[in-house]
Amino acid sequence: MLRKTLVATATISATLAAFATQAQADGTLDTVKQRGYVQCGVTSGVPGFSVPDEQGNWKGLDVDVCRAVAAAALGDAEKVKYTPLNAKERFTALASGEIDVLSRVTTWTLTRDTQLGINFAGVNYYDGQGFMVKKELGLKSVDELDGATICVQSGTTTELNMADYFRTHGLKHTPVVFDTNEQAATSFDTGRCDAFTTDLSQAYGLRTRMQDPDSVVALPEVISKEPLGPVVRQGDDQWFNIVKWSLNAMINAEELGVTSANVDEMKSSDNPNIKRLLGGEEGLAKGMGIAEDWGYQIVKQVGNYGEAFDRNVGKDSPQKIDRALNNLWNNGGIMYAPPIR
To answer: Which long-range contacts (CB under 8 A, 24 or more apart) does 286-293 make?
Structure first.
């Protein structure tokens, strides 16, 4: 499995690099301004991260990154169009210029960062891979899945992590692969597999769609590190910086206590860090080519990171995922952004 994955990565890297060269002919920000909106690649539907509601409006933690970028670049968080992509399509769509930014529960890894002509702009969710099983089986550990059939999405780090874990622990398994996580979760729910594996954040979201969510539990082991974040093409540092600092602004805003509800009041704050975040110091946005109030627009229209987390995957969402590692660095987690200065 490892050899197959590495060969596949090497095979597509040259193709993606060629796409990226063409896509970089014009600066992404100029293209976005001329077009009038940001084209954002998302999943085909992962609750809490990117999924359309009943009216067709996209919602989720990853969607809010797209909206933040649009607020910074265009002054309007609603100027985004979304392209649903599966795991196999996502990097080609980015490199070819079909999308401007990929914000789609994508794990930051060495090979992706160095061989595909792409740059990760940060981490908006620290995750880890786990396994879901039916409660009635009474399983207490992944070790009890020896010989099991396991539903998994193909073309992902999830598939590779599972192969590595079972091999190093002397366990056997039969992967049953699908193009999307939704297909894998549905097949597990209908009894096609003994277990379902993916990043736990997605697993908890997909569990809410199962026939009897309370009958499905997560085993205790977390077998990988999965730092998830937005991705851009290499070679356009201006756009890279805009996406990177849009996410950083949301994180810094939470740390500084600036919310969508109090941001107008906070504009008059004497705190120099808040003033810089909200555009009170001229020249900070010059290197990005965007308006000085870019940070204000992000917080006013999208909210800070904590607000986005709570409404999409946290305490105010059906998933009710604990902040844990995704809490701020000064509140027991590891979420941390460089300062705006």
So the answer is: 287/238, 287/241, 288/29, 288/72, 288/238, 288/241, 288/242, 288/245, 289/29, 289/238, 290/29, 290/72, 290/73, 290/242, 291/75, 293/75
Torsion angle of the four alpha carbons 135, 156, 4, 99, in this order, in degrees rounded to the nearest 10: 160
Domains and CATH numbers, the chain: 2-126+228-331 (3.40.190.10), 129-224 (3.40.190.10)
Residue 169's contacts (CB-CB under 8 Å, 6 or more residues apart) are 142, 143
The DSSP secondary-structure symbol of 317 reads S
pLDDT in tens, 200-227: 988 988 998 999 999 999 999 999 999 9
Type of residue numbered 27: G
Going by pLDDT thresholds of 50, 70 and 90, the confidence category of residue 249 is: very high
pTM of the model: 0.85
Q: What's the rounded Cα separation, in Å, for the pair 139 and 259?
A: 43
Block residue for tokens 């697993």: 203
Task: Give the closest residue to 229 by CA, choosing from 81, 84, 59, 62.
Answer: 62
Angle at 119 (CA atoms; ends 118, 121), nearest 5 degrees: 145
What b-and-e string marks burial along 230-267, b requiring 16 or more CB atoms within 10 Å of the CB?
A: bbbbbbbeebbbbbbbbbbbbbbbbbbebbbeebeebb
User: What is the crossing angle of helices 2-23 and 157-168, to 10°?
Assistant: 160
Sign of CA dihedral 111, 114, 155, 334: positive
DSSP labels for 228-250? E--EEETT-HHHHHHHHHHHHHH
Please state at what angle helix 237-256 crosses helix 61-74, rounded to 10 degrees.
110
Query: Is 27 buried (19+), middle (13-18) or exposed (0-12) by CB count in 10 A?
Result: middle
Cite the DSSP H helix spans in the chain.
2-23, 28-35, 61-74, 90-95, 110-115, 157-168, 181-189, 200-207, 237-256, 263-266, 272-277, 294-301, 305-312
Phi, psi for residue 124 in degrees, rounded to 5: -105, 0
Can you tell me the distance from the alpha carbon of 279 to that of 284, in angstroms, rounded to the nearest whole number? 8
